[in-house]
Design goal:
Blueprint: E1 15-19, H1 23-35, E2 39-43, H2 46-55, E3 60-64, H3 72-81, E4 90-94, H4 98-107, E5 111-114, H5 119-173, H6 181-211, E6 220-223, H7 224-241, E7 245-248, E8 257-260, H8 262-278, E9 284-291, E10 295-302, H9 309-314, H10 332-342, E11 346-351, E12 357-364
Parallel strand pairs: 1-2, 1-3, 3-4, 4-5, 7-9
Antiparallel strand pairs: 6-8, 9-10, 10-12, 11-12
Helix pairs in contact: 2-3, 5-6, 6-10, 7-8, 8-10
Length: 367
Amino acid sequence: MNYSPFFHHNPENNRILVVDDSPDNLFLVQSILAEEGYESILLENGPDAIAYIEKSPPHLVLLDVMMPKMDGLEVTRTIRKNPSLPYIPILLITAYDGASVVKGLDSGADDFIRKPVEVDELLARVRSLLRLKHSVDERDAIAYQREDFVSRLAHDLRTPLIAADRMLELLQKGTLGELSQEMYEAIAVMSRSNSNLLEMVNMLLEVYRYEAGRKTLNFSPFNIGKLLLEVTEELTPLAVTKGLSLKFLGSSNSQAIMVGDRMELHRVLTNLIGNAIKFTDRGTIEVNLEIQLERVKIEVRDTGQGISSQEIEQLFQRFHQGKHKRSGSGLGLHLSHRIIAAHQGKIAVESELGKGSLFTIYLNKNQ
């Protein structure tokens, strides 16, 4: 694939949608484009344009601003709000003043040209936007190839890591013969390192599945209070080892029933509470559950080192690593954010350096 920013112009490779309520204007623009060898599709109103674009996205849209039914600004906003569409450059054609141009660009258009249209200017803007379109497409293709490579690599790494994990487990149990104390300790270190690497690979695969739209969640009713209590009990020994107090302040009564993917939310809660323990050296971690009318509110509060305002802005980005020496791969919070978003919920953080952090999750009780 050629990733050069200099797009080799080939009109036959481009399909241009022209939308204008005036048949005369459509014919004029079509004639100009045809002289250069472009394929053009002509439509006279916004709703038809939206329907066509959703079915067969063109390489470029030439769009009149003033049209009945739906003007060019509304068409532009509708295109930009559709996450399933690829990037499509939009060139507005307007006979009006600068205010109209500003509104068009703010709506998501890429460029504009004024009526009456000058042939050379129109073709120059068309060529410029098509270069942009193909550059974006090439960038996205390379990004997809990179993500696919990472996914395949992570998948291939799991097999030898799992095999090594099983072998180290056998060695630790003495199945293959007695070990000296020194050998036992060395194998224990190897086992922990292998487990950490396997966990990172598994998390990377989960992130890829969410980002590629290949993750299927299993929604069913469950008791969120019991889940929180379960995770808290699982992590209590880790907190006790550090001399910390881990408390669950919520309730697991019948009012705590919600609909969601229990296993994925277990992953989120384990990550948040585990992070709170990891970054707290003394004090407490409190986990609270508040049952509201239509949603549940979960809080994880710690007395740890806190997070700076600059770090908070990037906290849920993929591979963002904090400045603390104990910071991990940067995948855990990103994946947690993805899981909560897939539940149509929200996750927020409040923190101040030296005064601890508060992570809050809001989840709808019924999906």
